[in-house]
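Worked example 2:
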Amino acid sequence: MNNIILIGMPGSGKSTLGVVLAKKIGYKFIDSDLLIQEREGMTLERIIEKYGDKGFIQVENDVNLSINPEHTVIATGGSAVYGREAMEHFKDIGTVVYLELPPEELEVRLGSLRERGVVSNGKTTVEEIYADRVELYKKYADITINEEGNQLRDTVEKLYDIIINKDSYN
């Protein structure tokens, strides 16, 4: 299936970039965090408070497993990579793109981790959360886009060029 699945840390621009990219290539757009909130009837922050990190990861994995569109850009939550089954599903239904950004830039973009509804797995800083996840992002990525110092439009153009040059998207 010709979907594009965006993974990366909170604040890496998955949702913002996803909407712009979907418009540019004529695809639909899904934000999996919004699907999770809709299913649970509460914010991500509240879901984490209620179920803890492990419970949230299970909810996220279940919701992500249920996503099965065609010609869609899917922005995942930053913790989606903790759900092995869902990540394998995403690899089956599309191309997984890791939006890579160093912790220093992420910290500037993020603000409060708690208010953002970020699964921390006991980690307290952006650097610690990044270190906990970076190998999983690399493991599941078909394409890695380094966003360091780039504007949104630059990243969209770079990803667009990669996508239109892939045989499966022609």
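The chain has one domain: 3-163. The first strand starts at residue 3 and ends at 7.
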